[in-house]
Amino acid sequence: xxxxQTVLLGAIAGFTIYLGLPFGRLKKLTEGTxxxxxxxxxxxxLFLLFDILSxxxxxxxxxxxxxxxxxxxxxxxxxxxxxxxxxxxxLIAFEQRFMRSRPGMVQxxxxxxxxxxxxxxxxxxxxxxxxxxxxxxxxxxxxxxALLIIGFGLHNATEGFGIVGPLVGENRPSWxxxxxxxxxxxxxxxxxxxxxxxxxxxxxxxxxxxxAAGALVYIIGELLNLNRRTGMxxxxxxxxxxxxxxxxxTDLILTIAGV
Length: 259
Known about the structure:
It is built from eight helices and no strands. With 259 residues, the chain is mainly alpha-helical.
């Protein structure tokens, strides 16, 4: 598979995220329904966090149990710790500095700002997916690269809903906002494919996965805070449950397919 073909297919895999984004324009919903959809977004992100952490451990454990590369193990472990810290604490610092209306005030983020933060966290994760696509194609593993493109493309469609979950029935986003959110969340798959085609690096993959994990920990906390409403816990619980199961079943289908 040529570089141009790989990049084009990587772009398709990344921008299927736009399939889920228009759901954010739904309106005239009850408060319980809005809470349900917002927490369904949290459930999808919670599963994505578990999925990221499982992928993070693979190269780190392989370095110590397989090749007995102690230097590589400590390097990857350090990359994970630093990346996770930057993803979590860096996002907190950015949010407090640029996204709160009044610094120091205890308040939840506006749904539109929270959606952009979710898109950022997902974008960091999708860059690592792009690396996997590019590296497989660069090694000549055409069949596996094709499976990755199809699988990640399907998975990204669900991530689009994860981004706009806090907006459903609350703030109807413009098409321009949807375009921006999709570019932030899906564009990194395209960029990662280009980088991965020529650069095979476990350290880079671990870095972006750990950045994504740190960011998602904070974002999930914000979603839980946003939906902590008296009388809405039933809707919130069902949304969290269905979102997590939906993410799990999507990933299970890809696993069965060999992705």
